[in-house]
Amino acid sequence: MLYVYTCLYYIKNTYTLKITNIQALAEKLKDNSLTEQEFQFLDNWIREEYRSDELDQVMKLHWDKLKNNANSANDERLNEIYQKILCRMIDLPEKVEKETKLIKLYRAFQKVAAVLIIPITFAFIAYVLYLNSFISEENWVEVNSPVRTRTEFHLPDGSSGWLNAGAKLKYNPNMSYSRKVELTGEAYFNVKKRNGKSFVVSTPDMDIKVLGTKFNVMAYPDEALTRVVLEEGKVEAKGTRCSFSKILAPGDKLEFQSDSKLLGVEQVETEAYTAWVDGLLVLDGESLECGVRKLERWYNVDIEIRDEVLKTHLFKATFQDESLEEVIRLLALSTPINYEILPRVMDENGVFMRKKIILKLKQ
To answer: Is the dihedral of CA 49, 54, 60, 66 positive or negative?
Structure first.
């Protein structure tokens, strides 16, 4: 694999990069004796020079053939990948002179391939094992946003955003290799575009793939609903537990119900779904049951709805800087509820439990 990229580099830049040097580095990689600087050189070179997904796919298909029978790397199979590389990466010159030089270069590569294919095979295996160990979940970074807080985050690839109360984000610090994050809860993302490398937000019910955009994702574990609201750019949402794929345009809201497997997309005013980033608690025509879960995370409180009929009652309100008691009082003015705020009690370990509020149907 490293040899193939060496060939591409040679063709692309038109100056000589000695194959013996790459072979020496490959041997050191195989023996795990590369210096940090040498490994960083190979690492950056392979990742940055060629980003084409199509080319990566060609390389993987070829590698899958070679790894099962590396000792019998014959000219026919080498011809296959060389032809694909030439068709993919090279604009064949119009002049016969240049064509002749290209053919000679191509044949020269074939002659040394048989010598290099075995050490490069072992080198590539060592390289993959090194990367796999580095990107294991043990090395991932986790950002937590405690209840009653909003937490700003900045990722190594230049992307940024906010986590809502009770949310958690995990990511690989080496994002030049994998721009994938795992989200639990709600987050707003401002993804930086990076030369065609996609950015993936993974939730239990779907993966959201983007190139560069601003969007909001809600996927709390205590809710059956996963929601994506696109502010600008374009995203693709793909189901992980249920098969679906949707391309979203700016202003689209996608909602997926994991219990009923219902999927819906509609145009909305995105401000209502991203206002929390600016410290606004927006309840936009939601049921009291859904609104209560927002209040619990926002104020770190337990709220119990005693009467089932209240759970489906819809209401609309926007709050900023109001205390919990004030919010409950205002809700009671617009809904048929009575409420009781219980005093905080201490558990058996001497720790004060969360404040609890009881909501009842007004008689």
So the answer is: negative
15 in helix, strand or coil?
coil
Distance CA 188, CA 155 (A): 13
Q: Is 261 left (phi over 0), alpha (psi -120 to 50) or beta?
A: left
Kindly report whether the global pTM for this prediction surpasses the value 0.90.
no
For 125-164, give one letter per residue: b (16+ CB within 10 A) or e. ebbeeeeeeebeeeebeebebeeeebbebebebebebbbb
The SS3 of residue 198 is coil
Taking 80 as the threshold, does the pLDDT of residue 252 lie above it?
yes
Q: Which residue has the tokens 């609309």?
A: 316
H-run or E-run covering 102: helix 96-134
Rounded Cα–Cα distance for residues 336 and 109 (Å): 81
What are 216-230's pLDDT values in tens digits?
999 999 899 999 999
CB–CB of 197/205 below 8 Å? Answer: no
66, 74 Cβ separation under 8 angstroms: no
| CA–CA separation, 76 and 17 (whole Å) | 25
- Rounded Cα distance between 155 and 8, Å, is 31
pLDDT of residue 362: 86
Contacts of 316 (CB under 8 A, 6+ apart): 283, 284, 285, 286
Task: State the DSSP string of 264-310.
Answer: EEEE--THHHHGGGGT-EEEEEEEHHHHHHHHHHHHT-EEEE--HHH
Contacts of 332 (CB under 8 A, 6+ apart): 338, 339
Q: How far is CA 319 from CA 284, 328, 330, 339, in A?
A: 11, 11, 10, 19
